[in-house]
Structures
1.
Amino acid sequence: MPALISSCLIGIACRYDRSHSLVEEIVKKAQELQFIPICPEQLGGLPTPRSPANIVKGDGKGVLVGHARVLNSLGEDVTEAFIKGAQETLKLARIIGAKKAILKDKSPSCGLNTPYCETDTGYGLGVTAALLLSAGIEIVEINPEEKVRIGIL
Ligand code: SF4
């Protein structure tokens, strides 16, 4: 069964600062798990490098219903790019029949419990994570420093 994976986790330098978050244990499982790499922020048309962004007045769920926005560190509103990236990611999931997405933590796009948002708990869904979950796609969140999670892939 194919699965989506955050491109930065397999070593693609697509993070905002043009770095990556390679997890070698994941790359070793690539054949077995049929990963399809995606970077929602790039799919939304944002450049690399780019200014880091934060969700204000809510989390990714709020962004999808128009209650929250995504602003970058320059104060620019990049909400539409984040939504487009989420939609393109979902489109890809449907094309390949993916029922699972392995996503990097702490991202306002990919995170399942990202701190880059404004909620009562201080954590929330990234925009892409929110859209994939609403479409019934299972998400496995990976903290590159916390190798124990790789075991559940
Ligand atoms: S966490 Fe997601 S949006 Fe951020 S660089 Fe990795 S793949 Fe792209």
2.
Amino acid sequence: MSIHEMRKTYSMAGLSKKDVAPDPMVQFQRWFEEAMQPDLPAWVEVNAMTLSTADAEGMVTSRVVLLKGIEGGRLCFYTNYDSKKGQQMALNPQVSLCFLWGHLQRQVRIEGTVTKSDRGQSSNYFRSRPRDSQLGAHVSQQSSVIDSYGSLQDEFTALALRYEGQEIPCPDHWGGYDVQPNRFEFWQGRPGRLHDRICYRNTGDQWQLVRLSP
Ligand SMILES: Cc1cc2nc3c(=O)[nH]c(=O)nc-3n(C[C@H](O)[C@H](O)[C@H](O)COP(=O)(O)O)c2cc1C
């Protein structure tokens, strides 16, 4: 099949303003639970989200990261603070997140402002990670140019020996970011490309609900 012939009809469900929770985070959690179906193929990661960041000139980059928690109305992910995304978020804290739950013909878009998580939260999460991931976080100077994969492996092995039998500390260059949302959009695919788009906008102390044209 050629690319231009690839298309699906979306007809699983609909979404209207009266169906959704007044609080968008409650609605998000409802959809997240629905996305976590027990019979999903193992490769599906429902907590995978596309994070877009921009630098001071408006140059945008996107990549996938994993949602790792929702605390006090904020969505949290972990990464290297010196990475390309880290450098962009230091200059410009406006970010967008996008979840695709294709098995439900759903998309959720979230826009908001990012802040670094507190060190206690980052260290706690770091401690809960597998040891290999902890070593990887130390070894990777994420987004920088390297000579070879072999040099990474050598550093990994040396560090594994150095920390043998000891707790691996959370590196200073690694930790969480918390996204405080100011806009949510819940998208449900519909036939004829007349999709449902229910959007929440933060108007100070409350959320305003609107329907957008597909
Ligand atoms: C499914 C998936 C999950 C990922 N999760 C993370 C993550 O949680 N944190 C992270 O730093 N990178 C994660 N990555 C790697 C990023 O997409 C990206 O390659 C990396 O963060 C470097 O991005 P940057 O150079 O734009 O900073 C993930 C990639 C995929 C495909």
